[in-house]
Amino acid sequence: MTDPAARRRTRRVVEATLWTVAAAVLVGAGVFLLIDRPTAEAGPVAIPVVTAPSPSPSPSPSPVPSPSVVPVLEPPPVPRADPNIRAAAQPELDVESILGPPPGPQNDPRPLRTAAPADRYAFLVGVTDYRPPTKDTIGSANDVRYIAAELEKSGWLPQNIRMVTDGQATGAAIREGMSWLTAKSTPGTFALFHYSGHVKQKGGTKEALWPVDRAFIDDREVTALLGRSQGRLWVDIAGCEAGSFMDGLPSDRVLFSGSSKGTEKSYEYPPWARSVWTGLVFDLGLAQRQADADGNGRTTMGETLRYSQYYAQAITLGQKPYGRQTPQFAGAPDLGWTLADPPA
User: Fold this and answer.
1) In the 8-state DSSP scheme, what is residue 42?
2) How far is CA 209 from the centre of its chain?
3) Are 7 and 14 in contact (CB under 8 A)?
4) I need a labelling partner for 53 at 20 to 30 A (CA). Which of 3, 83, 109, 305 fits?
């Protein structure tokens, strides 16, 4: 018969061995998690999305992409809803007591000259599918597809519209596209630059466009590249801290619009599969003419920007943890034009 003392010693040795193995497994798992988890610098927090407890109006379905565009899975079309969107996100809030009444009719002077279709150019950038570990957006590529379709409906020539999305939207491609646009922007022309996607926070007031390959384009470089234009120019940015790109761009010749202040986040709205800003400006505001404050059947850019600035705040009031987005626009005061007759 085995000595009881010897059995106890043997049991203690086995237990000690098991605990050692278990500890090694736990330590190994912890190292794997630390290695596998990207650092804070590796990727941004995803663009905030609006959470809406009540039904909200939806922009028109995104157009079917042309064969030259890499297709993505589109959500089912969402029916258009009541145009009263002031309390779409937080219906319990008294929006008008916070923001005041919606914008009414104003005098938007028409430009002295308009650009013919052959003299209109656009460069559109939208990144939904980022490379890991950067988080994807929801509808940035849809933003630019929709904008391109609306430009064509307004008489813009397809060959004058350049667009890069997702994997095409490298830093080199975006820089080359902006250079192409400014080369086309000569006196008598109208050019549009639109960006939808992440914005990289670089500290202070320095922000950067976030290409798919992380070849960041900071706000000073954006200003330098687009500042070479000589014709009329509209720069429109849908992304967090968009207002930080305003410095140095607005003028009597250049209109700047951004989806939020330089200190604010910008939102996407999943039911639209687009950004809040693009859905308001190009669909609800222009295409559906909900921004037509004077009811004359002609929705001007001034009406559209004021409408979209107001309702972007209304939709995002009470959103947590970031709060509302407050779109910004400045420059080019003659805002009595439409996409069909932009200024020259």
Assistant:
1) T
2) 11
3) no
4) 305
Predicted confidence (pLDDT) per residue in 187-216, tens digit: 999 999 999 999 998 765 679 999 999 999
CB atoms < 10 A from the CB of 225, how many?
A: 18
Quick: pLDDT tens for 174-189.
999 999 999 999 999 9
Give the integer Cα–Cα distance in Å for 258 and 265.
Answer: 11
Q: Starting at the earlier edge strand, list the strands of the sheet with 190-196.
A: 161-165, 120-126, 190-196, 232-238, 254-258, 328-330
CB 220 within 8 A of CB 208: no
pTM of the predicted structure, to 2 decimals: 0.79
Query: What pLDDT does 169 receive?
Result: 97
The first and second tokens of residue 269, run together, are: 């709205």
CA 268 to chain centre: 7
Tell me the pairing of strands 268-269 and 274-275.
antiparallel
What is the mean pLDDT of the segment spanning 118-137? 96
Task: Set out the domains of the chain in order of their start, with CATH numbers.
Answer: 95-330 (3.40.50.1460)
Query: Which whole-number Å values give the CA distances from 223 to 50, 235, 245, 249, 277, in the listed order?
Result: 30, 10, 8, 6, 21
